[in-house]
Amino acid sequence: MSSIMTNASAMTALQTLKATNKNLAVTQNRVSTGYRVAQAADNAAYWSIATTMRSDNKALSTVQDSLGLGAATVDVAYTAMDKAKDYLDEIKTKLVAATAPGVDKSKIQLEIDELQNQLQSLADSASFSGTNWLSVDSSSSDYSATQSIVSSFTREADNTITLGKIDVELANFTLFDAATTGAGLLDQGAALAADGGLQDVAEAAGDGTNEAVVAPFSDVSAGFTLDEDDAIKFDLVYNGETTTITIDKAVVDTALSATDGNVASAAEMVTVLTKALQDAGFDTTAGTGDLTVAANGNAVEITHTGVTASDTLEIANSGTSDNGNFFGVSDIDISDVDDTTLQSYIDGVNLMLESVTSAASSLGAIKSRIDMQNDFVSNLMDAIDRGVSQLVDADMEEESTKLQALQVQQQLGIQALSIANSNSQMILSLFRG
User: Mind listing the domains of the chain with CATH numbers?
Assistant: First the structure.
């Protein structure tokens, strides 16, 4: 049956053409934007994931900036630290030269003065963007003992954000601290809060019957703990000869088979002091050695094994330091010093040199870690971009093929609609006479 009211063929052709035009519009949009999912209406789930990951990538870009700033700060500190090591080498060389007979120490001191000034100037100028790790004032209200470098950005499964940080403890790298209780690597360390009652003791002598006895530690009942930078030192004058005794965390841990640097009682201090005397070359064998160590209540005593009047003991120059330095590099003045003091300067500068070398190594390790993290963040950003691309980018080869096919379908649809509409024209011929 033919009808002029309803053209079923034209209706079918029209619907097909509309569908083709709709698909063609989608494909043309993908070709023009490059995206398969350009807005939430295209695919809400993929669009949401892609939007979140793009936001995270922007955060990672900021992390890269933070790592770059941190790397620059570390690089400036390392450059200055490495040069400080060279200046300390020079000072040690001058001090060794001063031990030669007949040398004019005052002339050498002039050279040392310049090196001391250069060390301070170097530390003060090791600043990047207002940040200086080598010259600080720990008493300042805005001082922070820990500097943090943002190193990572992580989105957890519950969508909480975590920022990873590389923490830098300034105490490990500061050369000079302007605070009165400061303990820079080149400063004289502040006294320990607990030192077992360390004290100087006047000379004691044997009297033919009794040995000379001295008590360098008057009361160890409260105990004390030494960390890696702490040191206790005193001079033991044995029969007129002076030997420097040093107790640090390594001595404590070795003597007590521990790892915490803690001395809890007079009995433990006896063991520690015995080890320190042995390290200094004294024989502490009971009955036959040079010295014996014992507790007397809360005190710790050293006893000379000889009893004659010429057998003497004395404790002098007792001191403690919370960074191992008993003088600062700026305090060195050899213009008029004896050989013992000169040797103590050489030993002290050598310890400072070891500390600075260790600090420079640590800065190098931090710089290496920052570089590795920077490379990782860069690769991570690329990986996220690739992942987002898999979700939302259009396959241009596929879309190009679709576009051509749909254009052909569109032309055929128009032709089919034209044919369907022509059927109505054919009905008119039935009424022509």
Answer: 47-187+356-385 (1.20.1330.10), 201-322 (no CATH)
